[in-house]
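User: Quick sanity check before I run a bigger batch. Here is a single chain. Can you write out its predicted 3D structure?
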Amino acid sequence: MRQINISEITPDAAWQTEAGTALSEARTKASGKERSDYINSQSNLWSSLKPQLESISSGKCWYCEAREIRSDRAVDHYRPKNNVRQSEPPHAGYWWLAFDHLNYRLSCTFCNSRRADRGTGEVGGKGDFFPLEEETQRLQPESREFHREGALFIDPCKATDVGLLWYADDGRVEPKYRKAVSPLAFKKAEVSIEYYNLNEREIKDQRQGIYAEIKDLIERGDFHYSDYLSGEPNAVHAVDGIIKHLAAYTRRDAEYSAFSIATIKGFRGGSQREWMDMIELAQ
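Assistant: Done. Predicted structure follows.
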C-alpha cells in the first residue's frame, strides 16, 4: 500500500453544488432504509469522480495496488455510507459523508466487497465493516472529529497508516510491528490485512512472482559488480540496465510497488551490496 494524496481530487463547482444538494436532501429522509435508498440512488456523484481517483493511483486499487486481477475497481466509501456491520449499538452509517469526496477510496472488488478466496475459501473484503478501537468512540451525525474515533482500518491516505504493513518473501502482507512492540499497530495491520483481503491467493502469487524477478536481477547485479568497478564496458552496461529495471519496480505507478520496495530493502540490508544504493537515484 502506498500513501495517496487525496487532496489531488478536485471536484468542480457544479459537482460540489450537486453534492451539497444531495446531502441536504439526505437530511430530510427518515433514518434507515429510506435514507439509504436515497443515497444509493445518487451513486452518479461518486462514480463521476472515479477517473480522478484512478488517475492519482495510476489505475491501482488504493488498498492492494492491484490493477487487473482484482477489478472491477469501485469507488469505496472509507467510512460506510449506510449501516455499519457488527456495530453495537447499531449505527446507521456515516451518511453525512456519502457525498464527501474526502471519504472516497478507489478499491478493487476483492478489497471492497465480501469475496471468498478462490484458493482457500476464506472470506475477506471490507463490505460495510468499520471496526474501531472502542465502539463508544464511533462518530454520530454529523461529526467530523475523525482523529478521535480510533479507526482500525488502515487508511491509504495517511502516511502513518501505510507504514504499518510489511511484506514476506512469499508475497504475504504482514504487520510491520510485533504485538509486543505496539499492540495497536499490530491490531490495525492484522484487521486491515484480513478485511482488505490482502493475502488472497491470486494477489499473493503475483507478489511472489515479483520477488523471484527482483531476486534474479540482484543476483545478476552481484555477478557483474566487480567488473563494473573496473570499468569493463559490458559489465557497466549490464549493471546500468539492472539498476533501471529494479528502479522501475519501485515507481509510484508500478503495480505492487510497496512490496517491491520492501523486497529490495530486504536484499540490501546487512549486505555489502553498495551498488544497490543507485536504485533510489534511478527512480
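The radius of gyration is 22 Å.

User: Great, the batch can go ahead then.
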